Here is the input.
Amino acid sequence: MTRPRYDPGIQALALGLREVVHQELAPCHEYIFEMRSKVVLLYGATERVIAHGICNIHVFARHVLLGFPRGTDLDDPAGVLQGTGKGMRHITVKKLSIWIGRRYGRTFARPGSTRPHTASSNG
Here is the structure.
């Protein structure tokens, strides 16, 4: 018998997070694909989830990330978004019950939660 790629805890976390995204974005389009080290689930309001994605879930062997392609445009007064790239930000989800209780990603995943992009004085 082959060992599953993801242990039951990671599977439950990913599926639970998927359910939360579906609740917040319904109706939405979902595109799922496998990469070498992870499974990726992309979500958007249109069929063009790669170009116009709202959020995504990255399932790794030991953790799950909730990503936001335009995360730098999101209001994050609590400072929960991680990342230093030009646009993408993410949240590492370790326990779904804690994450849901704080409603971090629920707020970020809602359409219209972005703030207008303003040019920074740092260039």
Summary: Residues 8-74+81-109 form one domain. The chain has three helices and five strands. The radius of gyration is 15 Å.
